[in-house]
Structures are given as C-alpha cells and as structure tokens.
Amino acid sequence: MIRRNLPAILIAAAVILAAACSTVPYTGRSQMNFLGQKEELALGQQAARQVMQTEKISRDPVMNAAVNRVGRNIAAVANMPGARWEFHVIDKAEPNAFCLPGGIIFVYSGIFKYARNDDQLAAVIGHEVAHALARHGAERMSQQMAVALPGVAVATVLDMQSPVMGQAFARVYGIGAQVGYALPHSRSQELEADRIGLILMAKAGYDPEAAVSFWQNMSRAGGAKLPAFLSTHPVGQARIQAIIRALPEARSYAPGKREQFIPPDDDPPPGVRG
Ligand SMILES: [Zn+2]
To answer: N or C: which terminus of the chain carries fewer CB neighbours within 10 A?
Structure first.
C-alpha cells in the first residue's frame, strides 16, 4: 500500500518540505514548518478554550493590568502579522507562563513572586512572545508530524481534524495531559527565545538586563517540588551567562529614548514597579 503510493507520497512530501521552510526573525535560522499561521491560530484558540475551562482565571485587576500593559508593549514591537494576542492571568501559586500558537499567553499569578517589576515581567513575556514569533510550537509539531509522514498521506497530516495532527499537538503541548500546558521546547529553542526575548524587551523600552535578575530569582525557587516552569526552563549558570552575552545585541535594538510605561500611581501592583 505504502510502496504503491510511494512516488506520490514522495512528491507530495518534497512539495511540502520545499514550502515548509521558514526563517526565524532576528536569528535567521531556517526551520521546518508545515503549519500555516491559520492552522496555528486555530489550534491555539482551541487549546485556549480548554485552558479557560480547566484553570481558574484570575480577576486580580493589578496583575491583569500589569500582564496586559507589558504584553501589549512587547507584542506591539514583535511585528507578527496574523497574531491574535491575548494575555491572561491564571490564579495559581506556582511560577509559570506559557504561550499557545498564534499568541495567546497565560501567566500564572505565582510568577509575580519572582518578576518584581515591569522590566522583569517583560523578561517573562518577551521570552514567551519570542516562542510565538519564532513559531517554536509549530516547528515542534512539524517535527512530530515528519516522523509520521512516510506512512500517512500528506493531506491527512495537514488536516486539522486528523488524529496525526491531534497527536502531534497533544504531544508537543501536553494539552489535557498531566504535564500541564508548559511547552517543553528544545534547548536550542529555549536559547533562541531568550535571545529574541531580550531584543523585544529592548525594542519595547524595557531593560533587557532585568532578564538576568529574573532568572536569578527563579533559580532560587525550587524547594521540595520543582515548579513546572523550571522543569521546562532549566536555569543554570550557562543559561544566565548566555543571556548576559546576548545583552549587547539586544541593546542595539533599543529606541533612543527609553520609555518606561509607568502605570498610574494610585494603583501600583504589589511588588510591581512601573
Ligand atoms: Zn521557553
């Protein structure tokens, strides 16, 4: 069956692979990506509905304002056509944040213990927006689907309703599974998101150096149970050193005058400096 269809499959695969190469902004890396932005967006929105049903969405006005304020500023400089940015706070004590395809970002209230001001919050959101901008989730899914390609018709792989697509998405995002929603990226994707995140911070007028202090704060977290964010974002000296090395590049993107997006004085977030 496969043998008989092999020429057709190979041709289709070649066409798809040729069309499937995209370039990551800022780093210029070529990546394999079968998914169009429409498919990414649809998957992201579907998953977001599931998250909203499962998790307690925080109505804390201060945290929501901070996440939206910093998120909009970072998204504005990310220049990602087709993205539909949304920023939500999940009411949970553990420090975590994740981004679904297409730009839907969830920040756990627990992150505010480590992100103590807008600059540090921008480090978290810049990193997550960078994952979306670099389309890391779609890239991981494409890798999963490439494994399935030889035995499965290409049209089936790209069908939104196909089990292959569903499995790839579930495996990459862990939606509905015990692992939670934090997307386990590859190590190189993490470093790339750090680098692009710093650039986005600088472009939006935040101090990229705040990423260093944020990750230092996170590295002191832990205790009996490692927070999910740390299990998907291991923070060692190597990571912090890589961030420090990337600071000059990020600063070269800073606008001449650094704006500081200070929130109204009457309602400062707890521990969040404007
Ligand atoms: Zn990450």
So the answer is: N
